[in-house]
């Protein structure tokens, strides 16, 4: 409990009443936000209310503003759309509407409102906050409320959560819903690409985004589209010729498909709309391609939220409640954002103003400014797309004497996004004039094929070789766990023999170990004095130096699909607990984040271990949950156990104990998704981050060009790990990471950023007693 704030015992205090609503266009993940707000508010001793049907419900009041209990939001995380409804409301744009809204809130004792919506909804919310004192005064004056009723409610706390599939809000990297929508688009374009491939067709795909090209850009990157139209960056004046040249070039090289992505708001430099039909005509008439148009429409809005949206909405919803409880009358209303991997609070008014500026800036044809007003990643992603999408870009080419031979190797288990990263690296190399060289089948491939055997495991890659790799799972150039120390002499020899000037290693903890070995072997093998980067890719997300490894998002999505399916099977039968075993090695990341994203009842990690007291307590809470359950929601419960959480309490043993203790009142089943967790196709996030990391890694390797081997070896950044750390993407020197940040014994970072999330899983599942939650923030306001 905070010492700064006066504390009164619950019986003496008036509970804080916090309301949540969804507004504007619906977006997958909104339900997760509602669930997190409701449960976090209750866990912190407040009353939670849901306002149904957006501002319409707020203006109408009555039953539309409902006190919401813990169990009311059960199962919300997995549901698409918004279960509490949303509506456009003209009345709220008028003062009389907001006057009614204020009255309705005061009558229920609510003075904190968490709004999940787009910039329109948040603009409305801030206006409401500004007017609040005058609205109350008017209501008292008109005798619609008494002065006593308004006492203690002089300020309205507003907290914004951005729910929008377009990802059109400035100040945040991602809005709740945008990645789910991107999943829908990528699934569709992947299907379209298959038929295009069969018939050698061209497809023009229209995706949503009237003012914001995020969905179009990211889907173009994720699917390796040939050309892209977005509102922020109109194509050059002679775009028709430019596009036809690029597509002709790709076809000449042997590409059988053509995909062009067009955002709804696509336009030319004179702000004249570019329609999918314009593009189709051009491709059909100028290039003679059999061209079809597909408009994806509302499928982009719907469906179950992806893992990221479930996690994001949960973290942000929980933080919104904290923001309400921590607010003082002076605190500006915040909007909860995410920058790279960090949840942050930004001033709501500024975020909305910046967002609205983008549209104005585009209207003034200041396109460059518009691009940079978007989140920090946007311009960078756009550049990466340009670099990797087209084969012939004379402006990018380096002079002959500055070109390198870049080795690319995969190490460890396959992970989603490995191929996307490799394709991006290859495309970048081709664009710059470097030679990309695949070292097939990891270090064992190198070692095995040396000597009197054919040197077939090393081959130069062409742009066409990997043109379709972005959407492919597994590892196209082969991967395994062999380390270079198996035969360092041969590895070093091969680097020299194949004239490798720089090395990109893609993989997980083994890849990290491999780079560490290569770095240390430089003392005895001067051929290894070349710049090297590890690009982390592992479902376990346990590579030191980064908070995100490619493949971990794909894994979470696969795991969630598995668990949702298990859970559903319980709804038609008996009360059931599934004990699901997750991968992750000695890191509980996958189990914890999956637990957060699916609302698991408990998560067992290697970091914490498992003991009998824990099991006892969890079985007690299962008994309590199933005793209360009146059959209205008989969906199963999930317990996630990381594969290495305990030697004694195996997944099977835990299920057996639960079964024995349940005494027939509920069932326990085991689920082991195993390699299913590697996912079939990489998720869009793993694809786009693969491309970004791939391009960045190559740019880093280029910085060493022209240096002598000794100069390279003397520079700590010549062996580096690329990663996301908090709110930044950065390279870190291997030597430091190895020495100070690596828990070698447990094969994970010493300091795992997500450890604190476990408390949140426990809080939101009800596993953590409210008394413990109360200790962390002031929960009760004085009367
Ligand atoms: P989004 O939140 O997705 O941008 P809208 O712009 O349609 O969607 O806004 C949703 C609702 O928010 C509107 O129907 C209206 O009730 C309210 N709203 C939007 N802009 C304002 C405003 N300037 N003042 C008051 N209310 C607004």
TrEMBL record:
<feature type="binding site" description="in other chain">
    <location>
        <begin position="538"/>
        <end position="542"/>
    </location>
    <ligand>
        <name>beta-D-fructose 2,6-bisphosphate</name>
    </ligand>
</feature>
<comment type="similarity">
    <text>Belongs to the phosphofructokinase type A (PFKA) family. ATP-dependent PFK group I subfamily. Eukaryotic two domain clade "E" sub-subfamily.</text>
</comment>
<comment type="subunit">
    <text>Homotetramer.</text>
</comment>
<dbReference type="GO" id="GO:0046872">
    <property type="term" value="F:metal ion binding"/>
</dbReference>
<keyword id="KW-0021">Allosteric enzyme</keyword>
<feature type="binding site">
    <location>
        <position position="669"/>
    </location>
    <ligand>
        <name>beta-D-fructose 2,6-bisphosphate</name>
    </ligand>
</feature>
<dbReference type="GO" id="GO:0005945">
    <property type="term" value="C:6-phosphofructokinase complex"/>
</dbReference>
<feature type="binding site">
    <location>
        <position position="576"/>
    </location>
    <ligand>
        <name>beta-D-fructose 2,6-bisphosphate</name>
    </ligand>
</feature>
<feature type="binding site">
    <location>
        <position position="201"/>
    </location>
    <ligand>
        <name>substrate</name>
    </ligand>
</feature>
<dbReference type="GO" id="GO:0070095">
    <property type="term" value="F:fructose-6-phosphate binding"/>
</dbReference>
<keyword id="KW-0808">Transferase</keyword>
<dbReference type="GO" id="GO:0042802">
    <property type="term" value="F:identical protein binding"/>
</dbReference>
<dbReference type="Pfam" id="PF00365">
    <property type="entry name" value="PFK"/>
</dbReference>
<keyword id="KW-0963">Cytoplasm</keyword>
<feature type="binding site">
    <location>
        <begin position="118"/>
        <end position="121"/>
    </location>
    <ligand>
        <name>ATP</name>
    </ligand>
</feature>
<feature type="binding site" description="in other chain">
    <location>
        <begin position="208"/>
        <end position="210"/>
    </location>
    <ligand>
        <name>substrate</name>
    </ligand>
</feature>
<feature type="domain" description="Phosphofructokinase">
    <location>
        <begin position="405"/>
        <end position="700"/>
    </location>
</feature>
<feature type="binding site">
    <location>
        <position position="119"/>
    </location>
    <ligand>
        <name>Mg(2+)</name>
    </ligand>
</feature>
<dbReference type="InterPro" id="IPR022953">
    <property type="entry name" value="ATP_PFK"/>
</dbReference>
<protein>
    <recommendedName>
        <fullName>ATP-dependent 6-phosphofructokinase</fullName>
        <ecNumber>2.7.1.11</ecNumber>
    </recommendedName>
</protein>
<comment type="pathway">
    <text>Carbohydrate degradation; glycolysis; D-glyceraldehyde 3-phosphate and glycerone phosphate from D-glucose: step 3/4.</text>
</comment>
<feature type="binding site" description="in other chain">
    <location>
        <position position="643"/>
    </location>
    <ligand>
        <name>beta-D-fructose 2,6-bisphosphate</name>
    </ligand>
</feature>
<feature type="binding site" description="in other chain">
    <location>
        <begin position="164"/>
        <end position="166"/>
    </location>
    <ligand>
        <name>substrate</name>
    </ligand>
</feature>
<feature type="binding site" description="in other chain">
    <location>
        <begin position="298"/>
        <end position="301"/>
    </location>
    <ligand>
        <name>substrate</name>
    </ligand>
</feature>
<feature type="domain" description="Phosphofructokinase">
    <location>
        <begin position="17"/>
        <end position="323"/>
    </location>
</feature>
<feature type="binding site" description="in other chain">
    <location>
        <position position="481"/>
    </location>
    <ligand>
        <name>beta-D-fructose 2,6-bisphosphate</name>
    </ligand>
</feature>
<dbReference type="GO" id="GO:0005739">
    <property type="term" value="C:mitochondrion"/>
</dbReference>
<keyword id="KW-0460">Magnesium</keyword>
<dbReference type="InterPro" id="IPR000023">
    <property type="entry name" value="Phosphofructokinase_dom"/>
</dbReference>
<dbReference type="GO" id="GO:0005524">
    <property type="term" value="F:ATP binding"/>
</dbReference>
<dbReference type="GO" id="GO:0030388">
    <property type="term" value="P:fructose 1,6-bisphosphate metabolic process"/>
</dbReference>
<dbReference type="InterPro" id="IPR035966">
    <property type="entry name" value="PKF_sf"/>
</dbReference>
<dbReference type="GO" id="GO:0048029">
    <property type="term" value="F:monosaccharide binding"/>
</dbReference>
<feature type="binding site">
    <location>
        <begin position="88"/>
        <end position="89"/>
    </location>
    <ligand>
        <name>ATP</name>
    </ligand>
</feature>
<feature type="binding site" description="in other chain">
    <location>
        <begin position="583"/>
        <end position="585"/>
    </location>
    <ligand>
        <name>beta-D-fructose 2,6-bisphosphate</name>
    </ligand>
</feature>
<keyword id="KW-0067">ATP-binding</keyword>
<comment type="similarity">
    <text>Belongs to the phosphofructokinase type A (PFKA) family. ATP-dependent PFK group I subfamily. Eukaryotic two domain clade 'E' sub-subfamily.</text>
</comment>
<comment type="function">
    <text>Catalyzes the phosphorylation of D-fructose 6-phosphate to fructose 1,6-bisphosphate by ATP, the first committing step of glycolysis.</text>
</comment>
<feature type="binding site">
    <location>
        <position position="292"/>
    </location>
    <ligand>
        <name>substrate</name>
    </ligand>
</feature>
<feature type="active site" description="Proton acceptor">
    <location>
        <position position="166"/>
    </location>
</feature>
<feature type="binding site" description="in other chain">
    <location>
        <begin position="675"/>
        <end position="678"/>
    </location>
    <ligand>
        <name>beta-D-fructose 2,6-bisphosphate</name>
    </ligand>
</feature>
<dbReference type="GO" id="GO:0006002">
    <property type="term" value="P:fructose 6-phosphate metabolic process"/>
</dbReference>
